């Protein structure tokens, strides 16, 4: 088990959990959109407790607000899109969402000047650096979690994914590509800011040259280049620097899963497993979860953790019992 109590409060897997966090200051990232190829910039601002991650996108009629929620997902084929894809939607939110969840940030207001997140180098590294630049601020409100109580599973052909009850936040991601450089790769880990920063955040998106050429003809991936993706051609990696890890591919799929599951709105206490998953599967498991009110509950950090700490220590009695939080199940 990963719990320890210290003078700062409860820790789970090294992450301060007892209070919600936001950024200590505003920070801007500039880059290009991978699909439009045009300039894209985003500014992240500190936000109040319980506000979650909220995007404000500029349109000709002013800013349109979109919650970073699975309920706002409107497309998952090339990337995860929130909101109306023809008007005020925002594409490719997953790498920012992964950085925010991976680094343990609960509340941010993001202003974005166009339809797409900047792709940066195709990983979450620039977002982590931006977060590090301004630092985190601890808020007075307790962190809330979605705790998985019952297994939920989604199957599509030979792809599957599931959420299982688990005392922590664990990912177990398997990919299987018919490609000499990829093949079958599996990564299983407990999510901590340290693990995310060191082992996940720098893993870049990837694709075959042939697929990119097809997308170009359709007007997509116009900004895609060796600067922001690992390009595969036959059994070769075209990037002169090669891959950052031999299993960079499953690490990136893990990054995407962290970002997509962050659209649950709160951190998940549970184990997410997926086989041949992707944005669509990651979205479908959240739909499955929230369809079934018996499968989850919302708990506050210290209540959930004290109960589990007591169980770890072999106490028969719960400390204060386990309570559903007082707020309504707005995510159901
Ligand atoms: Zn990705």
UniProtKB/TrEMBL annotation:
It catalyses: a UDP-3-O-[(3R)-3-hydroxyacyl]-N-acetyl-alpha-D-glucosamine + H2O = a UDP-3-O-[(3R)-3-hydroxyacyl]-alpha-D-glucosamine + acetate. GO terms for cellular component: membrane. It is an enzyme of class 3 (hydrolase). Zn(2+) binds at residues 95, 252, 256. Keywords: Hydrolase, Lipid A biosynthesis, Lipid biosynthesis, Lipid metabolism, Metal-binding, Zinc. Gene3D superfamilies: lpxc deacetylase, domain 1, lpxc deacetylase, domain 2. GO terms for biological process: lipid A biosynthetic process. InterPro entries: Ribosomal_Su5_D2-typ_SF, UDP-acyl_GlcNac_deAcase, UDP-acyl_GlcNac_deAcase_C, UDP-acyl_N-AcGlcN_deAcase_N. SUPFAM superfamilies: Ribosomal protein S5 domain 2-like. One of its GO terms (molecular function) is metal ion binding. The active site is at 279 (proton donor). Pathway: Glycolipid biosynthesis; lipid IV(A) biosynthesis; lipid IV(A) from (3R)-3-hydroxytetradecanoyl-[acyl-carrier-protein] and UDP-N-acetyl-alpha-D-glucosamine: step 2/6. Its cofactor is Zn(2+). Its EC number is 3.5.1.108. Belongs to the LpxC family. Catalyzes the hydrolysis of UDP-3-O-myristoyl-N-acetylglucosamine to form UDP-3-O-myristoylglucosamine and acetate, the committed step in lipid A biosynthesis. PANTHER family: UDP-3-O-ACYL-N-ACETYLGLUCOSAMINE DEACETYLASE 1, MITOCHONDRIAL-RELATED. HAMAP family: LpxC (MF_00388). This is UDP-3-O-acyl-N-acetylglucosamine deacetylase.
